[in-house]
C-alpha cells in the first residue's frame, strides 16, 4: 500500500462520490484520479524520476491535491512547504532538497520569480503566462490517460516536510509511506473518521498534522475533503454550516478568534463530531468559552511531533471537563510514550522530564543530516525536547520546551534562526529571542537586543532588516534594547531570567 494508491482505490470504489471541494470545483474521486494520472505522465516526460524531489508551494487548493498525489504516483518524493516562506527560505530548500521540479501557486509567485533563472529545475505554475514556468493545467490536458500504477511499497520514501531547526536552518523530516499510513490509521480510529465524514482543511497542508492526520486519513477511508486556501473566522463558520463538516483541525487561535465572532449563533455547527486542536493546549477558561460558543462537548486536543508522524497523545472530549490544559493520559494508537530524566529513567508524578515517543509513525530521519537524526532518534524513540510531568492521575502536562521553540498561533518558530539574522545587522552585537504569553496566540515573539549604540525606533529598524529574509510570522513583534544578555559561567545565554523579567 502507498499514498497514491489510496486515491486510485477510492476512484474504483466510489467513482461518483464527490471527494474534493475547492470552490467553485466539486470533483469526484474518479475525476481527481484521472487528472492525477495525466499529471504524473506529464511530469515523467519532463524527466522527473522515482526518488526525485518535487517541491509543492501552494495553499490548500485543488492544485495542491493534483500535485500531491501525482508526484507520489510517479514514485517521486513530495516536498510540501509553507506558503508563507520568503524567497531566501525557498532558495535554501531548493538547494538542500536537490529539487528536480517546483510546483507553485500563481498567487505566491512573487516569492518564486527571483529564483527561476538561478536553478535548473522544472518550474510549474497554476496559471498561464508565468515567465519560465509551465502551466499545470496544460500538463494535465496533454498528459496520457493510460493507467499509471504506483509501485511504491510501504517502506519506500514518500515525503519531506521542512521544519525550522534550532541551528537556524530548516531540517527536512523524511517519511516513508508506512510512517504516514500509520498515523492516518490512528486518526481514523481515534476520531471516528470514515466514509461518511466531511473534513474541513483550513490549516496549511504543508504541516504534518493537517496533511497526515486529516488529509491522508480522510483519503484512506474515502471521506469528503473541503479545502480552504486561508483561515478566517467567518469562513470557518460558513463552511462548517453549509458543507455539514464533521471534523475540523485548527490551532487554538482559530477557535478563540471564531468564538468571538458576534454572529456565531447564526450558524448551525451541529454536524461536527470532533473539533480537534493542537500545537498548544487550551486553558480551562478557554475551553469553557469555546464549548459555550460552539455549543459542543466534542473538543479534542492532540499532542505530537512532526518527527513522530505526528503521533503522540490526545485529551478526549470527556477529559476536557476536569483536565483542560493537559495533553492527555495515554499514547494514541500505534504510539508509546515515556517521560524520562537526564539519565533515561522514568520520572515519578510531579517530576519534570523529557517526552519520548516511539511507533511506526516515527520519521525515517532528517534528510542529509545524520548527526541531527542520531540526536533525536535513539533506539527507536523520538526525543522530543518537550519537558513535561505526570499529575497524580497520570495526565501529562507540558512544562517547557527544551529547545526554546516558540509556538505562536499554532506555528512553530525557532529563535536561533531569527537571532542569527539579526546579529548580521551592523549595529547589533547580540540577540536573544523568547516567547512571551499572548492571550490569543498562545505566545508572541520578543527580541532582546544588545547594540553598539542606542537604536531609535528599534522595532521599525529590526522589522525592516528582517523583511524578505524570513517569513513574516517569524518576525518578532516586541523589542527591548538592553546592556547585556544574562550568561552562565561558560558563556551560554540564559533565557529563563529574560522570561521571568517579562512576567514581572
Shape label: globular
Radius of gyration (CA) equals: 23 Å
As a percent range, the share of strand residues is 25-35%
Instruction: Write the CATH architecture name of the domain at 1-8 and 17-152.
Output: 3-Layer(aba) Sandwich
- Major β-sheet strand ordering: 2-1-11-10-12-13-14-15
- Report the end-to-end length measured between terminal Cα atoms: 55 Å
The CATH homologous superfamily of the domain at 1-8 and 17-152 is called ANL, N-terminal domain
Provide the low-confidence segments as ranges.
Answer: none
**Structural class label:** alpha/beta
CATH topology of the domain at 1-8 and 17-152: Rossmann fold
Name the CATH class of the domain at 1-8 and 17-152. Alpha Beta
Q: Which range best describes the helical content: under 10%, 10-25%, 25-40%, 40-55%, 55-70% or over 70%? A: 25-40%
**Biggest beta sheet attributes:** 8 strands, mixed
Quote the average pLDDT.
93
Number of DSSP helices?
16
Number of strands: 26
Can you characterise this structure?
This protein is α/β, with parallel strands linked by helices and 504 residues long. Among the domains are: 1-8 and 17-152, Rossmann fold; 406-503, ANL, C-terminal domain (GMP Synthetase, Chain A, domain 3, 2-Layer Sandwich). 31% of the residues lie in helices and 26% in strands. The model has no long low-confidence stretch (mean pLDDT 93).
